[in-house]
Amino acid sequence: MHDTYDILTDEDIKEAYDNIQLPQRATKDSAGYDFYAPLSFALSPNSTIKIPTGIRCKMKSGWVLKCYPRSGLGFKYRLQLNNTVGIIDGDYYNSDNEGHIFAKLTNANDEKIVNVKSGEGFMQGIFVEYGITYDDEAAGIRNGGFGSTTTQS
Fold first, then answer.
1. What is the pTM of this model?
2. For 17-28, b where at least 16 C-beta lie within 10 A, e where not — what string?
């Protein structure tokens, strides 16, 4: 296990993506859809990893997908998303990057290594309906991922 995916071969990546598990809820009353690690990783204390999930999400207008670390990992290890809450807007799906969802995680504790096995849940996504103000005039078009709403056309 490694702190980064940078050392992977093309064969490693193809095998992982061929076996991607779609996010799903664990119980009928679960709010979150669990995202599963495409490959195993070990995250040392105070280290960061960027995980390509292999997942895209198409939503109706007026909805957003909010991503959080799995509760148990956050509680036991202080595992956190670097942007606190991942916000996947509805128009992200059609970007040039094909709407591929990434997660950048930090192990924010000083002692414990976080070990996540391939196929194990590490993040959860919750769909939330949102409203806008009556005088909203946003007309920009997204193209890209992180920071792309400030550079739309």
1. 0.82
2. eeeebebeeeee
